[in-house]
Amino acid sequence: MSQLKNDLLLRALLRKPVERTPVWFMRQAGRYLPEYREIRKAAGGFMDLCRNPELACKVTVQPLRRFPLDAAILFSDILTVPDAMGLGLYFEAGEGPRFERPVHTAADIRKLAKPDPEQDLGYVMQAIRVIREELDGQVPLIGFAGSPWTVATYAVEGGSSKNFPRIKGMLYEQPAMLHKLMEKLTGATIDYLNAQIDAGVQAVMVFDTWGGTLSPAAYKEFSLRYMQQICASLVREKDGQTIPVILFTKGAGSRLADMVDTGCDALGVDWTTDLADARKLTGDRVALQGNLDPSILYAGPAAIRKEVEKVLASYGHGPGHVFNLGHGIHPEVDPANVAAMVSAVHDLSPTWHQEAAAR
Amino acid sequence: MSQLKNDLLLRALLRKPVERTPVWFMRQAGRYLPEYREIRKAAGGFMDLCRNPELACKVTVQPLRRFPLDAAILFSDILTVPDAMGLGLYFEAGEGPRFERPVHTAADIRKLAKPDPEQDLGYVMQAIRVIREELDGQVPLIGFAGSPWTVATYAVEGGSSKNFPRIKGMLYEQPAMLHKLMEKLTGATIDYLNAQIDAGVQAVMVFDTWGGTLSPAAYKEFSLRYMQQICASLVREKDGQTIPVILFTKGAGSRLADMVDTGCDALGVDWTTDLADARKLTGDRVALQGNLDPSILYAGPAAIRKEVEKVLASYGHGPGHVFNLGHGIHPEVDPANVAAMVSAVHDLSPTWHQEAAAR
Questions:
Q1: What are the tens digits of pLDDT across the range B249-307?
Q2: Nearest CA to CA, how far is B30 from chain A (Å)?
Q3: B166/A298 touch (CB, cutoff 8 Å), yes or no
Q4: What is this model's ipTM?
Q5: Among candidates B165, B294, B332 on the partner chain, residue whose Cβ is nearest the Cβ of A298
Q6: Distance of alpha carbon B353 from its chain centroid, rounded?
Q7: Quick one: which of A9, A56, A135, A245 could link to A71 by a disulfide (CB 3.0–4.6 Å)?
């Protein structure tokens, strides 16, 4: 493996000094890029991209050709794991992801396969190897998985959901049964992320998109607890390098304080919490990643620059900040505005690290 | 006007002692009730119900015939105000509300009419009078409006939205222009709510469904500030009775602390914040209304009772709690589960008020 030429992200995630704030974006590879839409169109469906290591590599590196970003993130989906467990993932036009065989009963849970990542999710591991080769040490590669709770919502509802009728019914009516499902999903997720680390990802992120829809008590019992198990079970070092773990619960708010105790290295913060407040809640025990409102990209470069400045100031001085949006880039956004956002971070962030650099 | 026979809600909203916790639900009149669906089907569209005072009265009182609730809430919609301002509200099957003439430019804002509530929204005022007559003092009637920010999102986007591209673009690119819109919406909302009070509503609630999608700074500038103007401009007394004002921002979280300073009497709390935390944040300066996860109604009576108990315990002893869901009742819910929830509040809440009653 070639030497990493830009380790800003890894240093920031471990709260080590940096010269400027590293920057990458959730969904930085995706539909807002015309070159992505072109490949996607030629490939057919979304999963055809994910399942083809060469194409997955191509779209993973596309945003790096345009913008001086400090990380690549594996192009894949959080539902590869339940698919490999036997649920039959498919995508319906305009409908989002669906499962042929959703999980409704104890028998459904018993039937779930325990995937062997190298065999059943080999296309992901192969993509990681191809991407690492292609990146050639330019920037680190981030791997990821969905949180067990978030994946469970799709597995039980059979697809996307607004009110989560089936899984919330199960949570309050048959909590022991739901815990059985959570345990299986957690085990599969741990194996999957460890295999990603083994294949070459240099940091991992767990996306808990729907944890914020739970009451605080249910969140601790059904989402946080299983993310903690993941943190405790991941291989945290590879080739002498620490592999940082980032947790992201959308809408976490004051739950950030509890999330610190999972043993993660960094927390993603959405735009509804100020980074200054997030920093107070987490007491500088972890790095923070975020948190511009992705809808700011509907405005133009001057307005974007002003808001980037505010995010940097809200975090304040010192290490431990990774610049990101508070959620994924929206598909309708103009890439020129993304460029403006990256430039603003490059231009404006060094001043917030001068003290650290002088030490 | 007949004497109010059950003033539990009004006492609780003003933090006065009560014998048990009053209970009502957002969307207590609605699609989960078969008798609602029947009237709705006969009437045609949703707005045909709202615009017909007799039908609006019928559906307003339907849940009171089934459950021993402590309040009625006017059956209407938050988009009656922008409709009266000239935007042309209509509903498309499966699409939700839409406007024929959304607000995109400064000229669009200048053209907005200033509605005369008794003339342009007379159907609402007439519905209030008919409902008060029908209720005959059984329970108080709550009036409501959308928050200016929430109404603005529909006015600018032309309907429901997920990412709010147009209004967030406007917020960051043309904030002065957006403030002009907010001022007009706020003025119309104040007139509308004061007319509702004059027509007979005994409490008012402002629904800020989308304030929680703003960053904390944008929330203060574009949502909270205008709700504060509303609180400052409402007629707060009628016939010797105080008219309590309830504000509800979905996803408010720690913003509850700022919301207290608006001068409202009570805050709605969604299920993602514990009432104990909400009480700490607000320092017993206002009453709190909430906050069972509406998806708990997908479980059965025993599970529901357990969760009602937890909400009551989370609020704890003393006055100032109005039991409600953290958001509206979902349409697929079994009315028997709603009955179980109401019974649980009746059965379990008196113990939390015994101290107060003994004083």
A1: 999 999 999 999 999 999 999 999 999 999 999 999 999 999 999 999 999 999 999 99
A2: 16
A3: yes
A4: 0.94
A5: B165
A6: 25
A7: A9
